[in-house]
Specification:
Elements lengths: L21 E3 L5 E3 H6 L13 E2 L5 H4 L20
Antiparallel strand pairs: 1-2, 1-3
């Protein structure tokens, strides 16, 4: 099951579970659309994998399957990558 991480790893923007602007790689590294668009080739800066739109978990399923509350943030953001 997807973690549904709560923020962009680059800019720390909130990405709630119903956000249509969350993108993930196969390792679930999570980025907002603005940061994704600025990454080289729109690839994950951690693994080089493809960043695709994260599925939205139906609201009715969130109580039994809550999103992660763990925020992951690159210490220096992604400024060096842009």
């Amino acid at each position: 099951m997807l973690d549904l991480r709560p923020n962009c790893e680059c800019c720390d923007r909130d990405l709630p579970p119903d956000s249509p602007d969350a993108y993930i790689c196969s390792f679930e590294c999570t980025f907002c659309g603005d940061c994704r668009a600025r990454l080289p080739e729109e690839r994950c800066p951690n693994c080089g994998g493809e960043l695709v739109r994260r599925p939205v978990r139906p609201a009715s399923m969130l109580a039994a399957n809550p999103p992660s509350a763990v925020r992951i943030l690159k210490p220096d953001g992604c400024a060096a990558l842009f």
